[in-house]
Amino acid sequence: MLNADVAYRYCPRCGHALELRLLKAGEPERLVCEGCDFVFYIDPKLAVGTIIADDEGRVLLVRRAIEPGYGKWVFPGGYVDRGEEVRAAAMREAREECGFDVELLRLLNVYSFAGTTPVVITYTARVIGGTLAVDDEGLEAGWFTPAEIPWDALAFRNTHVALREFLQLPPFDAES
């Protein structure tokens, strides 16, 4: 019998019930079809984030208008669509969430945390066009100096960690 945390109950191939089985020592139990032995891997979701900085050393943050994290601040980001190139997804999310076309400068880091679904690939970027605006997923957007960042009102752990890592770069030299 599946535990209550598992949302999938039936095989996507044949419709039989799924059960948890240990397939290999040292690995977690996997969902396996009782009928056709299909192994249903529940993989993480891939997301991108973009820390956009200006020449004054400020970073752009967007206040979320959706859950999770309604009313809290994040840098622009979102999920990568199947078949979408990761860098293209980062630029698309920036354009959608804050109205700016950006040039990606460097990969900041890749963040994942035990017990969470998304793996977040985070880039540094600079504005090359567009106008500051928010879409239906944002309440507002604004530029923040390091001292003004609303640390207690950031939406996600990766937002905290990535911003702190970004601020450790040589004086906002996002290209080095």
Apparent shape: elongated
Instruction: Tally the beta strands.
Output: 10
| Coarse structural class | mainly beta
Q: Radius of gyration over alpha carbons?
A: 20 Å
- Low-confidence segments, given as residue ranges, are none
Main CATH class of the largest domain: Alpha Beta
Integer tally of domains: 2
Q: Record the strand order, biggest sheet.
A: 7-4-9-8
- The quaternary state of the protein chains shown equals single chain
Biggest beta-sheet profile: 4 strands, mixed
Estimate the strand proportion: 25-35%
Report the helical percentage: 10-25%
Number of helices: 2
Distance between the ends: 52 Å
- The name CATH uses for the topology of the largest domain is Nucleoside Triphosphate Pyrophosphohydrolase
Mean pLDDT: 93
Assign the CATH superfamily of the largest domain.
Answer: Nucleoside Triphosphate Pyrophosphohydrolase
Q: Which architecture of the largest domain would the CATH scheme give at its second level?
A: Alpha-Beta Complex
Helix and strand sequence: EEEEEEEHEEEH
Describe the structure.
It contains two helices and ten strands. By secondary structure, the protein is mostly beta strands. It has two domains: 1-42, Ubiquitin Ligase Nedd4, Chain: W (Single Sheet); 45-171, Nucleoside Triphosphate Pyrophosphohydrolase, CATH 3.90.79.10. The longest helix has 13 residues, at 86-98.
